[in-house]
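Need residues for this backbone.
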């Protein structure tokens, strides 16, 4: 039993946390890309806060790689499911879910911007709250091949992961305790998410 005790002694809480945390982050971001109801940005920011307070040298890099890869695979999978729905007579529940989250006004804007600026709009769509789905549907309606979508979506996912990781690093640097940084990062992420909607309502009211 001595080897068990030695293994237990050499296993730090950080190692156990990483063994659970990174796979969980990957699955949650992947699922959030397929079913856009999970606040994946807040998840990445929270993970970045925890990684910021760890002693492991590559903790933040692992958060970045995990989040960007999961977001990319989830987006490509959702796009592939959408293309299957576009080619099917009866459509698909995935395509209907995409259409339900893309109001006509935003879809028209996304189509116009996609026609004018191409891949650049796809990159920016992941940084704009609620911008990903209308642009993805515009790509589907423009019949983009999945390879073209994947090439444009790769830098979009990298930029998205960097942005929300920086929010987490900011929260982690402002507070000594990780949980305080997590709360700050989540609050900041929520503010960023709702700010465009609030601004539009204020402009409409005025």
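Answer:
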């Amino acid at each position: 039993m001595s080897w068990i005790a030695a293994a237990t002694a050499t296993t730090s809480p950080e190692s156990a946390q990483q063994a659970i945390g990174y796979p969980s982050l990957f699955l949650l971001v992947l699922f959030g890309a397929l079913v856009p109801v999970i606040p994946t940005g807040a998840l990445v920011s929270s993970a970045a806060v925890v990684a910021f307070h760890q002693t492991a040298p590559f903790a933040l890099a692992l958060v970045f790689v995990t989040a960007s890869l999961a977001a990319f695979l989830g987006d490509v999978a959702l796009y592939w499911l959408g293309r299957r729905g576009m080619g099917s007579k009866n459509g698909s529940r995935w395509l209907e879910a995409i259409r339900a989250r893309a109001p006509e006004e935003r879809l028209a804007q996304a189509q116009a911007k996609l026609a004018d600026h191409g891949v650049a709009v796809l990159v920016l769509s992941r940084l704009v709250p609620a911008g990903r789905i209308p642009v993805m549907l515009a790509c589907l309606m423009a019949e983009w091949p999945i390879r073209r979508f994947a090439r444009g979506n790769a830098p979009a996912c990298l930029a998205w992961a960097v942005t929300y990781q920086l929010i987490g690093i900011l929260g982690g640097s402002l507070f000594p305790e990780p949980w305080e940084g997590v709360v700050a990062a989540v609050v900041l992420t929520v503010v960023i998410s709702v700010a465009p909607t609030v601004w539009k309502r204020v402009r409409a009211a005025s």
